[in-house]
Amino acid sequence: MADFKFEPMRSLIYVDCAKEDYRPKLQRWLYKTHVPDSIGQFEPYVTKYAFYPSFPMPPQGERFGYARMQLTEHHWLVSDLDPRLGIKAIAETFPMDVLVWQGNLPASVLEADHGQMESDGDVGNEARQTAVEGANPFIFCFLPMWWEEDIKGKGRTLEDGANYRWNVAIGYPEGVSKEEGDKWLYEEVLPIFQNAPECTRILASDVKKDINGCVMDKVLELWFENQSGWYKVAVEGTKDLKKPAWAQQDQFPFLKPYHNICSACVADFTMSNNLVNYHGYIPMR
């Protein structure tokens, strides 16, 4: 790989579960099929591949584009989008049903197609790159390997207590420049969280949009002790925020859920650090 560009970076995928009836199917596919498929593809150039299960959706979480399944994290050494990585001995198994379970396709698409799309292997990867009317886009954010901005809570350690980590990806609406959006974010929104004792940590990075054309502009993490602390600041503490002219919904965060904002609340640690902990799909006796 000497001629590949060494480009350490991190990526986050916000995995929703469109309804609870889909959860057993989605979880089975993720652990039985997707994990070994993925490891077999990218093990030589990925140093971390982890699933962080979402904490239960907090009250009013839907307006924040809450991903009810998990946050998927990769640490890359080279870009996964390099065309030379496109030749695969065995294609990834990605049935279109998965996109329905995740809310990236409406069930009516498969019903109209009579399931024919399911047999096309990597067609799922192609479909998830395009937003479909009536469904939510597949949000796949590439970021620098390390956080770019340390806004609040520098020096916090694991011994300082449990962390309810609210990971948020935001994309400013069409017609709103990143400069204008960032001005709103840093001058009107973040001071509320910075001044709230319930919020213990704030970190931020710009999305590397050149990697895959991601619609999001920025990823932040805002930490709390628990769900109640999150609600007090994110919901109650933002009630008096002025609605911007470009607002896509009437309440904060004013962005279109699952399109211009996706988020998940997760813990520091997961047993689903797949390159280290995955030992196959071993069922309960």
Write out key terms for the chains shown.
single chain; 285 residues; alpha+beta; five-stranded antiparallel sheet; four-stranded antiparallel sheet
Layout of helices and strands, plus pairs?
Elements: E1 9-15, H1 23-42, E2 46-53, E3 70-76, H2 96-101, H3 107-113, H4 123-127, E4 140-144, E5 149-152, E6 164-170, H5 178-194, E7 201-206, H6 209-212, E8 218-224, H7 227-236, E9 261-266, H8 274-277
Antiparallel strand pairs: 1-3, 1-4, 2-3, 5-7, 6-8, 6-9, 7-8
Describe the structure.
The chain is 26% helix and 20% strand. The chain has 285 residues and is α+β, with helices and mostly antiparallel strands. The termini are far apart. Pfam families: Chalcone_N (PF18232). Residues 6-106 form the Chalcone isomerase N-terminal domain. This is Acetyl-CoA hydrolase. It comes from Candidatus Eubacterium avistercoris.
Concise structural overview:
The protein has 285 residues and is of the alpha+beta class. It has eight helices and nine strands. A five-stranded antiparallel β-sheet has the order 5-7-8-6-9. Strands 2-3-1-4 form a four-stranded antiparallel β-sheet.
Kindly state the number of beta strands. Answer: 9
- List the uncertain runs: none
Q: In angstroms, what is the radius of gyration?
A: 19 Å
Distance between the termini: 44 Å
Shape: globular
Strand order of the largest sheet: 5-7-8-6-9
Q: Helix proportion of residues, in percent?
A: 25-40%
Keywords: Hydrolase
Pfam families: Chalcone_N
GO molecular function: hydrolase activity
Domain Chalcone isomerase N-terminal: 6-106
